[in-house]
Amino acid sequence: MSVSASAPGKLVLLGEHAVVYGYPCIVSAIEARVRVSVRVLGEDQVTLRVPGLPEPFMMNVEGVLRASRFPPAVRFVAFAVRRFWEHVGETFGVEVATGGQALVSYGRGEERGLSQDAFGVSYGLGSSSAVTVATLQALAEVTRQEMDLGGIFRLGHEVVLAAQEGLSSGFDVAAATYGGTLYYVTGGKVIEPLAVGELPLVVGYTGVKADTTEYIKRVARRRQKFPLLVETILESIAALVDEAKEALGREDFARVGRLMNLNQGWLQALGVSTEELDSLIHAARLAGAYGAKLSGAGGGDCMIALVDEARRSEVERAIEESGLPGARVVRIRTGAEGVRIEG
Ligand code: MEV
Asked: Rounded to whole angstroms, how far apart are CA atoms 174 and 296?
């Protein structure tokens, strides 16, 4: 019997990096889902089929238990299978197939809505945590193991920590598990759903793929060199996240936008913004966005702009016409449902 589960990606609105050090962030699950199908096998074999690999990755159970590393394309799935075995106290052969829902994006000179890009391969929108959470949920279902969302979140976060050298706050795992828009504190100390509707966001991809772990390490180095200054920055980010939470509750998007601009200033001070991110952010602000900032670890990937719907087209056009060769607008919807079994 094969069982499928899906989980959403995420966009962090405010508070990235600070959330690694015990502070809050605000994250929203996005309507771009990873789907995972799982089948228990009779033999002691693990077969992983992922879009990035032309041939399935195959290894016996013993090998998966002992491996210290896996190819990047299967890393999160392999760690999820292994962590699940540990959790249930037994191993079994399994076939896992993953796939991503396509996202609509468009760049310069392209007709709007034409290009469909595989979610997660390039944008840094949380496909690793989504694939982890969906794999765990499908494994729990196929083996009839009772696991509530708290259990899925906890195991999922351990998987991401194992796959990312211990560097993860877990907010992306929380978004994939619970969905919606969340106020989140490191390690899941607080996971509070926020009663906000869909957020009027424009997402711009810089065309540059970023390395999350590298940028987390970069902030860690800066924090070691300038402990007092960096702590002050992280505390300021935490304060603006708390203010934004209030403002979001009132749908005061103009204020949230200003807080996003402040957050971007601190992210620049932490050394994680880039020329490409800055140029798209600048273009979005000039086109009338309430505010704009990078979203995620920095170093590339995506920026976000909060907009009045009446200004959406201008902001999107400003990103498309920014002159950055790889820049594209990525269509997303926030507040997506968390992990679920698919029929
Ligand atoms: C990466 O998307 C966001 C960071 O805050 C890392 C994390 O919270 O795990 C940089």
From this structure: 15
Instruction: Give yes or no for residue 297 CB within 6 A of ligand 1.
Output: yes
Q: Which two tokens stand for residue 280?
A: 């798209």
Candidates 13, 16, 159, 182: which one to mutate for ligand 1, based on the most atoms within 8 Å of Cβ? 16
Q: Residue 17 has which token pair?
A: 């990096």
- AA letter at 31: E
pLDDT per residue over 9-39, tens digit each? 999 999 999 999 999 999 999 998 999 999 9
pTM for this model (two decimals)? 0.95
- Give start and end residues of each alpha helix (H) in the chain: 61-66, 75-88, 127-142, 149-163, 171-178, 212-225, 227-249, 253-269, 275-286, 312-320
Question: Would you say the CB of residue 23 lies under 6 angstroms from ligand 1?
Answer: no
User: DSSP 3-state assignment of 249?
Assistant: helix
Binning the chain into helix, strand and coil, the percentages to the nearest 5 are 45, 25, 30
Per-residue CA distances from 98 to 39, 268, 330 (Å): 12, 35, 22
CA–CA gap between residue 10 and residue 20 (Å, rounded)? 16
Answer whether 86's CB lies under 8 Å from 64's CB. Answer: no
Q: Is the CB of 82 under 6 A from ligand 1?
A: no
